[in-house]
Amino acid sequence: MASVSESFFEPVVRVGVTGLSRAGKTVFITGMVANLLARGRMPQLKAEAQGRIEAVYLQPQPDVTLPRFDYEGHLAALTGDDPRWPASTRAISELRLSFRVRPAGFFASFGGPRVVHVDIVDYPGEWLLDLGLLDQSYDAWSEATLARLAKRAEAAEYVAQARAEDGSLRLDEGRARALAGAFTAYLAVARDLGRVDCTPGRFLLPGDLAGSPVLTFAPLPRPATTGRGSLWREMDRRFEAYKSRVVRPFFRDHFAKIDRQIVLMDVLGAIHQGPRAVEDLRRTMAEVLGAFRPGRNGWLTGLLGGRRVERILFAATKADHLHHEQHPALTAITAALLAEAKSRADFAGARTGALSLASLRATVEEVVQRDGESLPCVRGRLLATGKQAAMYPGLLPSDPARLLSPAREGAEAWLDAEFGLMSFAPARLTLKPGEGPPHIRLDRAVEFLIGDRL
Ligand code: GDP
DSSP for 149-199? Predict the structure, then answer.
């Protein structure tokens, strides 16, 4: 907890960084922190452009029970002799970055520099999906989940197993484990297929809860009798424990304290996978963003008690896969993907923005001549082979509806276009003193998130 004097004299801004798995959270935080410690590539950060930032430094975080974001380890992976992408976000972590800034304008004459602490909180977007569980009973959740799974080929095995189970029989821990294991295996396959509604959120990202009874449940049809000690009753109890011991504490202890939020999305990855992945991403993001519209959930509204996230930035990551000519189209698609979720309540007064960025630029731009046409490409080192290659990912339409409409209508493939995507490895860097790793629009993102507090 910040002491009263600390919060009075040295304000704290808590910045949440979230997004679904592989959206780019780890690379974003690493790139952002590196570029705030060495600000040579941050011209759009106003306090920096005005020469008011005297120092930025890492400090011990206030919450001693949370894992610290492994900034040094991740940076070493990205900037070593053999650069690699770092290990992704698996659970919540935190990092405190402190700024010593001189005040701007009118206040400049009142004394010396002040200190602003920025606490960066990294957490999986999947955890926000769990908010929807809070209003559901085990019975209703099981029924809805089994109905959804019945339409999915990859869930056939689990559904058959669940239907064959007699929940009225006495709990046998081995059976419970086998069911939870099979359900988790289904979730893992669904995720690998690009499905994004893989809840409960802790099943795939259990952190230190792996193997505990609170994660040893699975959806089961309700049997005619559910006596004390029966499998179904015990699963019900664990589902309730998951809500009260896992989901609620996360929202109460972490989510409710966030002041500013960035939500990262791998929009290009979804476009590359096809219309179904784009539609899945749209639906899941609408659900994830439900957490930012208190009012929808009574418990959360009570918890927040009028407090709300002041700014939310939606960012399409990995924009270095596109020539900059195409960045406005990517941003427009990202904004359109969220349009419906946004219009429902406009996030209760929060200021929102959308942009496309690359936290670590792994490519350079290049124009390639093909059949008398100039194609705006990017070039980089391929992750698979280590060889250099130029990529033309296809032309994103400037009208987002050209992608979003077929996605909504359930098209199997894009009609008139194909969107290729190659995975690039991070490039080997030689940085000048004072310069952070290359990026695209990280400075704009930081300005949106905390510029007004510096
Ligand atoms: P997380 O699961 O949200 O923490 O995702 P990560 O930050 O680990 O990113 C997942 C993967 O996306 C990385 O391993 C990279 O392959 C890729 N990636 C993330 N950011 C960038 C970027 O700025 N440029 C490129 N080219 N790839 C990126």
Answer: HTT-GGGHHHHHHHHH--TTSBP-HHHHHHHHHHHHHHHHHHHHTT-----
